[in-house]
Specification:
Layout: H1 4-12, E1 17-28, E2 31-43, E3 48-52, H2 59-66, E4 74-83, E5 86-87, H3 93-99, E6 104-107, H4 121-130, H5 137-150, H6 156-160, H7 169-181, E7 187-191, H8 199-216, E8 219-224, H9 227-233, E9 236-241, E10 244-250, H10 251-256, H11 261-268, E11 317-319, E12 325-327
Helix pairs in contact: 4-5, 5-7
């Protein structure tokens, strides 16, 4: 069944990626872990979607599910992942190999998930180009050199002759980002790729990503726990908790007027918004185990707005207007009540 959220998003434009009710579970001796639970969102050409939430909220598992990088005992059990209308969940493993790195690229938090420690950088980058395009080695090498320059690596010719262990952690991450840019994919999924970078290089990478989206029409999914990053980068924001999307909307809507108490808590706990001399706001408790989620709303045991009504799972509420937004909560915050969460 298609969610009302994805239906409304598809009416605005033909999306590059349309995720509909995606479900990915892990089977264990103690039960089933619903790591991705009916997640829906859509992203168009040249747009940036930010996915935020605490550790364990399902952000990375959603990305791995889109890329079909889930190993047993994990299994995608439902939903659709449409790339320009083609369902990636129906493709064979061989067909997915032609998609990954070409039409969809992913930048991991740990660059060593991308880089082979026993191969030189030029070998890896040339293979990444020639695996999908019938070009000469010299042309592939030229593209590799240009990609390294774009991510701020000095002396690219020298660096192309190096091995991954000869780079610092931040330099390895920049190489991984360069590899993702090589084939000018339709969609790039970034799983906290700038965590290991210094502020100056982080700003440069963010600028390059925005330029890529604007000039090439590349769609970008940026997964992070840092709201200050997505506030200046993303167009839409998807807030996840316990494997589900609890709020969705434009960055301005979600950050300036959050509806879900969890979203408000994330924003209010940002150190950049804390007043001098005042204790930092905290969301009480900790993220529950996905094996032992409370009945109803998964956030209710930590929520200051919870009532007995929250023992029932809240349905998705979609707000009508020029900018589509949605949330899952029986007690949504109103604009006046959410002012403390402004960023």
């Amino acid at each position: 069944m298609k969610s009302p959220l994805s239906k409304q998003m598809r009416t605005r434009q033909q999306p590059v990626l349309d995720v509909q009710n995606l479900q990915m579970h892990f089977a264990s001796r103690d039960g089933v872990v619903r790591a991705v639970d009916e997640v829906s969102f859509s992203i168009g050409r040249g747009r940036v979607l930010g996915i935020v939430g605490e550790s364990g909220s399902g952000k990375s598992m959603t990305a791995y599910s889109i890329m079909r990088l889930i190993d047993a005992p994990g299994k995608i059990v439902g939903g659709r992942v449409l790339l320009h209308g083609e369902d990636l969940l129906q493709k064979s493993s061989q067909q997915m190999r032609s998609v990954r790195g070409n039409r969809i690229a992913m930048i991991f938090q740990d660059p060593m998930m991308t880089l082979n420690p026993v191969l030189r950088i030029d070998t890896q980058m040339i293979e990444a180009v020639r695996a999908h395009h019938a070009v000469s080695r010299d042309e592939a090498l030229r593209r590799a050199r240009e990609a390294l320059v774009r991510v701020g690596i000095a002396s690219p010719d020298e660096r192309l002759q190096s091995y991954p262990h000869q780079f610092s952690g931040g330099m390895r991450q920049r190489v991984a980002i360069a590899i993702a840019l090589l084939n000018q994919p339709d969609l790039i999924i970034c799983d906290e790729p700038t965590t290991a970078l210094d502020v100056t290089i982080q700003g440069q990478i963010l600028y390059e990503m925005q330029t890529l989206c604007r000039e090439a029409g590349t769609a970008l999914i940026w997964i992070t726990h840092d709201l200050s990053v997505v506030a200046g980068l993303a167009d839409e924001l998807c807030v996840m908790y316990a494997g589900r999307v609890v709020e969705y909307g434009s960055v301005e809507q979600v950050i300036n007027s959050p509806r879900h108490p969890y979203t408000h808590g994330l924003i209010a706990s940002s150190p950049s918004r804390n007043q001098r001399g005042q204790p930092l706001h905290q969301i009480r408790g900790a993220t529950p185990s996905l094996l032992y989620l409370p009945s109803g709303c998964a956030f209710r045991l930590r929520c200051e707005c919870a009532t007995d009504q929250c023992k029932v799972t809240p349905a998705l509420t979609v707000e009508e207007g020029a900018q589509m937004r949605s949330w899952r909560c029986f007690h949504p915050l109103q604009e006046a009540g959410a002012e403390a969460g402004h960023v």
